[in-house]
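= Protein in question =
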Amino acid sequence: MTATPDVQLQDNPNEPRRRISQRIAAIAESATLAVDAKAKALKAAGRPVIGFGAGEPDFPTPDYIVQAAIDAARQPRFHRYSPAGGLPELRQAIAEKTLRDSGYAIDPSQVLVTNGGKQAVYESFATLLDPGDEVLVPTPFWTTYPEAIRLAGGVPVEVFAGPEQGYLVAVDQLEAALTPRTKILLFVSPSNPTGAVYSPEQVKEIGDWAAERGLWVVTDEIYEHLTYDGVPFTSIASASPAIGDRMVIINGVAKTYAMTGWRVGWMIGPNDVVKAATNLQSHATSNVSNVPQMAALAAVAGPLTAVKEMKVAFDRRRTAMVDGLNTIDGVDCPVPKGAFYAYADVRSLLGRELGGIRPATSAELAALILDKVEVAVVPGEAFGPSGYLRLSYALGDADLATGVGRLQEFLGAAR
């Protein structure tokens, strides 16, 4: 029997081959990017949509960083291939920045520059995991983490902490989720999507527990400079030296310097892990574009003035959003201590009548809000259990006030 051009046959001649591999077909679309794209499409069509979905600062990239990119673009040496692991001068600057901000001393050879933080997330798990290895994932989680773990052959194990405990997992919960297949603890503070920040004591306790259990720790420090109310950022790498060389740090310039579109991140780890991940990247994408690398160099080697200015605005918006949401009967929004997200508990709204409909899930509620009052939010299903909404306050004050006002009017009518 001869296969047609678009249908190949498996060993069983009566069973056509899949057009899309099981591995790739199992990946869910990024819910946060999907919400943002839909909001932007509606805006382009002339609808007055307020978008609380995107996790990116609304500020422009600082001028001195843009100028560094312009200068680099004029230099012929940056028109050519460069080392797959990153420009040596950027890796050196990242090592110095890591010591400055995380209190963790590394050699530049332990740095791999990646195409944004997402590539660092995937390559970290792809390098460390064998099929069936388990990763403890504090939940709510950023939507990409479990997909990257599954794509790498691993098994994400959700460990849920609700608003009653400030969205912070405890060691006894991690211990209860531990199995002989557990290899990695994922640790994120400040958190996307909740804005939760672990105290220095909690960070040390969790790190020491992971060390005692012989686990690897993969920690995402992308929001390290965005904390509020005097709450400090604590790197688990420096808080728990006992983890030793079973540590991988993920970071990037996107959030701190308003550079989400520049696509420069990095992973830091033991030399053998970084070398293996670099080999993977050499076949997947080769080097990160040189011009954004030079912009990133100007960012990490420069002052933190821009992020301090952004934090003032984020802090103001944080207060306005949380105060506004908490006026709505059926909404409980803990005060986030970091990042730029509010994670509202809306379980009490589910099943209530809103606009003639009784949403049963937060996904249905989010769709209803977008349809009825043209406000885009991300449902809790993107980050773990249903019953929650994530709202980014990284948008202008006027839009934030308008959006929250629409939510108050619409959700306040629930009965």
Summary: Residues 63-301 form a domain with the Aspartate Aminotransferase; domain 2 fold (CATH 3.40.640.10).
